[in-house]
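Review session, final week

We close the course with one last complete record, chosen because it touches almost every idea we covered. It is Probable GMP synthase [glutamine-hydrolyzing], a protein from Gossypium hirsutum with 335 residues. Go through it on your own first, then we will talk.
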Amino acid sequence: MSVATRPRSSTKPLTEPRAILGPAGNRVRVSDESKRRTEALKKPQRPKVPVSQSPKSVVQSNVFVDSCCSSDSSSSNSSFKTASSRKTVKQNGVKQAKPKVASTADEVVTEISPAMLGPLKRCDWITPFSDPLYTSFHDEEWGVPVHDDRKLFELLVFSQALAELSWPTVLKKREIFRKLFDDFDPSSMAQFTEKKMLSLKVDGCLLLSEAKLRAIVENAKLILKVQQEFGSFSSYCWGFVNHKPLRNAFRYARQVPVKTPKAEVLSKDMMRRGFCCVGPTVVYSFMQVAGIVNDHLVTCFRCQECNATVKKDIKPKIEEIERLTKDAENICLSR
């Protein structure tokens, strides 16, 4: 029995070309390579932005990212991290504005917020726990040159009262002092009788000790004599420093003296004239508060401010003092 056999084709089927071996073996085929090239041609090309036109913040951020990449990592991991970081920085750079960086030291100072500056630096004897009235007195009056006779007499009395009271206590009773002492008018206080002097009481107690009150009344009479001789009590006091305030430059409170040779000279002269309770310590305290000497510490913000006030006001004050002195000399010569 014959079996029909299927005739074989005489032509051999076409075989696919063998791929060329690359560095990685036969993993990459020729057909895949051609397919990728075709897709790359169809995909739209993204225009490249020149470096000069790129945003400055993106360029700076790229430099920062590139410099932060570790040299120990592989090239593939390093390039991947850099590319992803650049993409993130670029997106953030569009949405958020970068903080302005000052180019000079002056710009840095002007851009500092006042809240960052902190509290003002004062003399060491003024602390955060000091009485606000005492702090205000330090910031506004202490060390400022004074040339008014009534004001000078008031400050002299306060300096004498420090032997019995503290500065905060004196300042709290300041209006009481002014009321009982007739606003520190020497001509009015010179008329105080014994009865009037003993009536200077607060809550049934004398404002100061009896001896201190007697000294203040006696000093008021002597100030009138000084005014007749020198034209003003201010001219007499400022004459001991050549009408220019002394400027010390102490850095620490422990360096500030309680008396000086100038204070001793003024104290001796006042005692010679009959003034009472005017020892060198009292006189130097008076010189400090009246601005005859500037004893603000160099670290205190008021040190330079008092010096600036002196430069601004010293010329007209000197001219006024010289005029009063000449008038007093003419009066003395005419007699």
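Two points worth writing down before the exam:
Residues 143 and 291 are 4 Å apart (CA to CA).
The longest strand covers residues 201-202.
Good luck, everyone.
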